[in-house]
Amino acid sequence: MSTNATTADGTATIEAVENMPAITISRDFTASAAQLVKAHTDPDVILQWLGPEGAASTMDYWDARTGGSWRYVHTIEGEEYGFHGCFHTVDEDRLVQTFTFEGFPDSVALETMTFEDLGGGRTRLHTQSLFDSYEARDGMLASGMDIGVNEGYAKLDGLLADGAV
Amino acid sequence: MTDQLSQVFAALADPTRRDLVARLCEGDATVGDLAAPYDVSLQAVSKHLKVLETAGLVSRGRDAQRRPVHLEAEVFDLMTKWIERYRRQAEQRYQRLDAVLAAMNETVTPEEGTAS
Q1: Which residues of B76-93 are buried (b: 16+ CB within 10 A; e: fewer)?
Q2: A100: containing domain
Q3: Is residue A145, in this structure, part of any structural domain at all?
Q4: Residues of A in contact with B83 (CB under 8 A)
Q5: Residue A10 belongs to domain with CATH number
Q6: Residue A126 is assigned to a structural domain of this protein
Q7: What is the DSSP-derived secondary structure letter of residue A133?
Q8: Measuring CA to CA, which residue among A15, A137, A155, A62 is closest to residue B10?
Q9: Is the dihedral of CA A72, A74, A79, A85 positive or negative?
Q10: Domain B2-71 belongs to what architecture?
């Protein structure tokens, strides 16, 4: 299914792509492409905005070069959530990296960020996250739900493992 | 709620079932209609439909002869809600980035004498 969601509270637009397990997000910024690249690659800068509200975030390792790797941990109410991946391409106008949430260590997404100059000091960031299954994509979408989602997934894991589906 | 989420995910984890759902977007259909393009038995398609029905994604009509399969669109509203919530989280993250970028712009103005 393809679903667009846009509301008045911000300019980020999101799409769950129909025929591939992907999510795309676009957002305009008052910044140059170079600044946006810096905001996504400089470890001191990225820690200032990346983590969810209320999370303490620490960088375990971060080597933002083509072929480098990264790992950071968000600590929320005493629980640690680790994420890691590799930088596949670090370029002036394009960032490609892999992304794994360590709660689902066998699943990996490929994230491609491109930077579109809109003129007037504005840049549009396009992010595509390509997941390795529809379940992984939908799981990521639903991960914001704060009501026992993990339990839900544990159940789903069980169902899938049992061959019930 | 959580249980329904799990069931919806599980139901949609199968490519045949996703295809069935996609075709039901165009309108109600009988099991026979739905089975026609596949190289599988009516029973196999019925089994898939049962999973979709249990997850609340489809319902069966009362017409005793045909029992047409109907897509329950409101379940997909759930999906839309998850997506909207995910979008809002991205937007919040990007609003923090806006502030970081604004600070970045300030620190390059020439009259800045001392590092903050």
Answers
A1: bebbeebbbbbbbebbbb
A2: 3-133
A3: no
A4: 3, 5, 14, 16, 141
A5: 3.30.530.20
A6: yes
A7: S
A8: A155
A9: negative
A10: Orthogonal Bundle (1.10)
| A144 inside domain | no
B42-80 tens-digit pLDDT: 899 999 999 999 888 899 887 767 789 998 877 777 667
pLDDT of B24-45, one tens digit each?
888 899 999 999 888 888 899 9
Best of B4, B91, B92 to disrupt the A interface by mutation (most A CBs within 10 Å)?
A: B91
Q: pTM (2 decimals)?
A: 0.64
Instruction: Say if A48 is an interface residue toward chain B (CB within 8 Å).
Output: yes
Cross-chain CB nearest to B88 (options A9, A23, A159): A9
* Chain segment B79-102, per-residue pLDDT in tens: 677 777 788 888 888 999 999 999
Spatial separation of the C-alpha atoms in residues B83 and B99, rounded to whole Å: 25
Contact criterion met (CB < 8 Å) for A53 and B87: no
Kindly state whether residue A148 falls inside one of the protein's structural domains: no
Assess: ipTM above 0.85.
no
Q: Nearest 5 degrees, angle CA A21-CA A25-CA A31?
A: 150
Inter-chain residue contact A45 with B79, CB threshold 8 Å: no
pLDDT at position A139: 74
- Residues of A with CB below 8 A from B79's CB? 1, 3, 16, 138, 141
Number of domains making up chain A = 1
Please write the tens of the pLDDT for every residue from A65-90: 999 999 999 888 888 989 999 999 99
